Amino acid sequence: MKNIFFFFSFFLAALGGFSQEFQVTGTVTRGEIPIEGALVQVEGRSRYTQTSAEGRYSLSLEKGTYNLIFSYGNKKRLRVDLSEDMVLNVDMNDAEEVLDEVFLSAVRVTASSPITYSNLSNEEIEDRNLGQDIPSLMQYMPSVVTTSDAGAGIGYSSIRVRGTEARGINVTINGIPYNDAESQGTFWVNLGDFASSVEDLQLQRGVGTSTNGAGAFGASLNILTDRYNYEPSAEIANSFGSYNTRKHTVKFSTGLFDDHWEFNGRASVIKSDGYIDRASTDLKSYFFQGSYVGETTLIKALTFGGSEVTYQAWDGIDADQLEEDRRFNPAGAYEDDEGNLQFYDNHVDDYKQDHFQLLWNERYGNGWSSNIALHYTYGRGFYESYRAGEDLAEYNLPAFTANGEEVTESDLVTQKWLVNDFYGTTFNLEYENEKLEIITGGAWNNYEGDHFGEVIFTRFAPSLPMHRYYHNQASKSDFSLFGKATYAVSKDLSLYGDLQLRTINYEVNGFEEENVPFIIDDAHTFFNPKAGFTYSFSEASRLYFSFARAHREPNRSDYEAGNPEPEELNDYELGWRLRSGILQLNSNLYFMDYHNQLVLTGELNDVGAPIRRNSGNSYRLGLELDAVVRFHQKFSWRPNVAISRNKNDEWFATWDGELRSFGKTDISYSPEIIAGNIFEYRPVEGLEIKFLTKYVGEQYMSNLENEASLLESYFVNDLNFQYTWRKAPLFEEVVFTGLINNIFSEEYVSNGYYYTYDWDGVTYDGAGYYPQATRNFLVGMTLRF
Asked: How confident is the model at residue 104 (pLDDT cuts 50, 70, 90)?
């Protein structure tokens, strides 16, 4: 409590002591259309910002003469003499072509594209970047639902978009696939504090544009890492909070030297005990990047990764335990010789992952440019588990005799290992003139995974050193080619076309647990066409429509659970975008028509991964609205709401020993209403206060619509503040950040699982839950040199 009091006292003292500065504010547009995400930088200094969703920017500078650089693909330089507050509006239509961060040109879209999307800028990320994972930072975006095993947004976290779980969301980092090739999941726990190295991200809902890597079935998430810096800089960031959470980050940049070279890097440590008992997290991560900047060339070499040790918390708890002690964690439980309940200390997930990327952009003049990238990822680690009363034969261990009796069971400690390599290349060639933009390219990626299990300890049976009880090897190759074009028929109408051909070969050979053979030899060829148009009623109003077909292959756990079929999706998107002085409005109606959609059954496998099954015909129909309303220079409102209907045309399942039709049912984990709000108030220069709310409607955790699988709706509120003390003694900036999560201490559950079992021909069911943290806080201070 004393530490909290000291922090706020220091904060208030700083608030009263900032020096007088002048503001440069304005709007960056192309014609009359506001530009979101344009970079506004002070030449020769590390001071920069990005334009908001309505194209607005604000910089505070002392009296003097400055060159301001406005960049958005092209660049514009303006000289200002600052002796008082001034408004500087910038039209980028006459900006010069410039080499900039162009590695996402093949996967990113803009307001002129017939694609539904939202951006999250570096500035918005920094406001709440106190150690929580990227899904937690994205939770106020439209149609997004997030959850965390540990309950506090650090550790194993995941995201759903339009009801589609993480394995249906295609994630790229600098245009390079991040999804695990076999599981198709994205494990943010392997990228601790990665948000501190993210420049911005774009979430495309629906199929989106053609991307490198796995097909998108709910969304595509495209992440751009840190830009190169013109000036040297360094920063130290520390944050602390509830559940013994702490984050320590160090960053540096050499700035651009010899007019061509820049190096920057980051090292981070995040630790947390978690809201759930023993759901601890220990994350160590790094990011290093070198850039070469030429007149027509940009080359980047970067490496990032780290290690994580996370106590398992994916078992969840039942309804009775939820009422009795919602923070209880049953993972690692066993009874000692006296019959007392104990917990195994090292019941953990222990994994390391390293990424290497080489990116090269070249501009040739006359509208031509190219991108090529090489990448390699090396991962290795294990789940360590205490298993009580296991049958020795299932682990290829012999029975033994004790006190004249044969013993066939023992408590064991096992490690389930995965060692994998993922490597490949992505490439594209781009041509652009006043009316036409064409991008052609492709990718080749290869995955090799080694899966094996070892018994490292037996409690009662004779021990065998590092006894291996299963082993299988997997390989997967993925090759794709795409071509897409945007053509301006007139100043008001543009047409969009996108064709992708993708081939996959997947092989597994060996044994799973219990000596079960696991052999896969499967291949798929998919053709994914997309088309659409954008019509401008005026500079401020645009209508768009798009159709996209997508296919997606099953993942490893789908094959383990049965004989899955590939998914097919026809996605229809109709949207309208409005940009005016005080209002920005995005609205879209979507219809996602699936064949053989792999939907979650509600069940989990033995390592906590959700199990999926083909649904036959199903659909998702919805309306999404999001807006930015700027009531005043100091006050803005950002609401969003998604209303949807998500249905299986006919769901079949075994019940009471018979295969039954349950008719048209709700698709699991698909709430009909998802809404969010951000109220932002800037009472004085340097201080931002945000009140954030999130509502998620009730949802079923199965496709049976059973009451036992119903997950209740929840409504949570956060309070976020940030104060930037510019020109503080010894530092260029000191930034104080605070976050109170779930300020009204709502006891809610954001995720769970549902199971059934048969007894004497009768089916019984039950559910497990993942409670989320009640009121908790995080505070941080960043020192910038």
From this structure: low
Whole-structure pTM value? 0.87
Are the beta carbons of 168 and 669 closer than 8 angstroms? Answer: no
Q: Are strands 635-648 and 673-681 parallel, antiparallel or unpaired?
A: antiparallel
Containing 15, the helix (H) or strand (E) segment is helix 2-15
Beta strands in 107-197 (DSSP E): 117-121, 144-148, 157-161, 169-173, 176-177
Amino acid in the structure at residue 357:
Q
Closest CA to 159 of 140, 139, 176, 174: 139
Helix (H) or strand (E) holding 487: strand 467-488
Q: Tens digits of per-residue pLDDT, 128-156?
A: 999 999 999 999 999 999 999 999 999 99
Q: What are phi and psi of 93, to 5 degrees?
A: -60, -35
Task: Tell me the average pLDDT across 11-33.
Answer: 63
> Please, which residues have CB within 8 angstroms of residue 449's CB and are 6 or more apart in sequence?
181, 182, 418, 419, 420, 473, 474, 475, 476
Distance CA 548, CA 535 (A): 18
Mean pLDDT of the chain: 89
pLDDT of the residue at 3 = 44
Check if the beta carbon of residue 417 is closer than 8 Å to that of residue 450: yes
Contacts of 56 by beta carbon, 8 Å cutoff, 6+ apart: 25, 26, 27, 34, 630
Q: How far apart are CA 167 and CA 726, in angstroms?
A: 43
- Give me the pLDDT at residue 102, please: 59
- Domains of the chain: residue spans and CATH: 224-784 (2.40.170.20)
**pLDDT exceeds cutoff 60 at 8:** no
Structural contact between residues 676 and 692, judged by C-beta atoms closer than 8 angstroms = yes
Q: Is residue 443 pLDDT above 90, yes or no?
A: yes
Contact 422, 447 (CB under 8 A): yes
What is the residue type of 657? G
Q: Which of 447, 443, 402 is nearest to 423 (CA)?
A: 447
Matching residue, tokens 């090799």: 448
Burial of 421 (0-12, 13-18, 19+ CB in 10 A): middle
Cβ atoms of 648 and 619 within 8 Å: the answer is no
DSSP per-residue letters across 663-725: -SEEPTT--SEEEEEEEEE--STTEEEEEEEEEE--EESSSS--GGGEE--EEEEEEEEEEEE
Residue 94, classed as helix, strand or coil, is helix
Closest to 495 in 3D by CA, of 563, 449, 544, 528: 544
Residue 47 — very low, low, confident or very high, per pLDDT cuts 50/70/90? low
Which pLDDT band holds residue 20 (cuts at 50, 70, 90)? low
What letter would DSSP give residue 217? S
* Token pair recorded at residue 282: 């220990």
Residue 47, token pair as written in the block:
């001071």
Q: pLDDT digit string (tens) for 111-131?
A: 778 989 998 888 888 889 999
CA distance 221 to 207: 11
Return the HEC string of 753-784.
EEEEEEECCEEEEEEEEEECCCCEEEEEEEEE
> Between β-strands 64-72 and 48-50, what pairing exists: parallel, antiparallel or unpaired?
unpaired
Question: What's the pLDDT score for residue 229?
Answer: 84
pLDDT at 54: 73
Could you tell me the pLDDT band of residue 760, with boundaries at 50, 70 and 90?
A: confident
